[in-house]
Amino acid sequence: MTMPISAFGDEIADDFEAQLKYLSELNIGMIDVRGAWGVNCSMFTDEHIDKINALLEQYGIKVACMGSPIGKSPIQEDISMESDRLCFIAGVAKKLGTKNIRMFSFYPEGDVTPEVMQDAIQRLQTLTDIAEELDVQLLLENEKELVGDLPERCLEILKTIDSPRIRLIWDPANFVQCGAENQVDEWWDELSPYIAYIHVKDALLSDGTVKPAGEGDGQLLELLQKLHETGYDGVLSLEPHLAIAGHSSGFSGEEGMKVAVTALRKLMNQVGIEEG
């Protein structure tokens, strides 16, 4: 069983070539593109895209996913803003050689009531329909303070929309920070049919502190074992947040990324997973 490792390059540096150079030194052949030269992927120009593609070819690294901010916005805002952003990022994604687009499930104004859940699902359905038209893959990340924060809410969203165009990014640390205990033991069976991507970071239930894989309460070892047993053929994407875990991005620096890569490879070796 082999699985490729990717990483959020802007967790290493703002400069895109510096991102690729360090990933190459770590023998990682894929990258999640969230930002380059301090510019978010939702604002890339044709000049950015041309420079990125030239550097990707130079370093022999492929884009695994666009780390877009789609859906990380208030649920009461007009959906056209996110629809337009999806159309734009879909174009960027295709130019960079991927169909995968990370996205989110909106900030509620208050509690996640059944009405709020239905509103979020309707909005996500609109984006899923657009993804179908544009032939791109939406990857919904679970995240604290959004509608799709807890495992049961992610499950409701994905079961209701029931489309292969929207699938789950399982982020163990984010589930931990929402208070989800024993997440793999409790939720693997129900959520696994919807998983298409994995974010690799861990966290402590006690205070939410982000940790390298295997050093927190996110059941990373158990998750990798399940992925191995079921023949998961997707990406393991490092989003370590070991130095800064911000609202819209995170940062680890070169040393933090090295720690994160080492921790993941240690767990992969324990499970018997080879890098693809």
Q: Overall mean pLDDT score?
A: 95
Q: Specify the structural class.
A: alpha/beta
User: Main sheet, how many strands, which sense, barrel?
Assistant: 6 strands, parallel
Beta percentage is 15-25%
CATH class: Alpha Beta
The sequence of SSEs as H and E is EEHEEEHEHEHEHEHHEEEHEEEHE
Number of strands: 16
How many domains, as an integer? 1
Uncertain runs are: none
Radius of gyration: 17 Å
**Terminal CA distance:** 8 Å
Explain this structure.
The protein is α/β, with parallel strands linked by helices and 276 residues long. It has one domain (2-271): TIM Barrel (Alpha-Beta Barrel), CATH 3.20.20. The protein is 42% helix and 18% strand. The chain contains nine helices and 16 strands. The strands form six sheets. A six-stranded parallel beta sheet has the order 2-13-10-9-8-7. It has a two-stranded parallel sheet with strand order 1-16. Helix 3 (80-95) packs parallel to helix 4 (114-134). The longest helix has 21 residues, at 114-134. The radius of gyration is 17 Å and the shape is globular. The chain starts with a strand and ends with a strand. The mean pLDDT is 95.
List keywords for this structure.
single chain, 16 strands, 9 helices, alpha/beta, TIM Barrel, globular, two-stranded parallel sheet, 18% strand, six-stranded parallel sheet, 276 residues
Task: Give the arrangement of secondary structure elements.
Elements: E1 2-3, E2 5-7, H1 16-25, E3 30-33, E4 35-36, E5 39-40, H2 46-59, E6 62-66, H3 80-95, E7 100-103, H4 114-134, E8 137-141, H5 151-161, E9 166-170, H6 172-177, H7 183-191, E10 195-200, E11 202-203, E12 210-211, H8 220-230, E13 236-238, E14 244-245, E15 250-251, H9 253-271, E16 274-275
Parallel strand pairs: 1-16, 2-13, 3-6, 7-8, 8-9, 9-10, 10-13
Antiparallel strand pairs: 4-5, 11-12, 14-15
Helix pairs in contact: 1-2, 3-4, 4-5, 5-7, 8-9
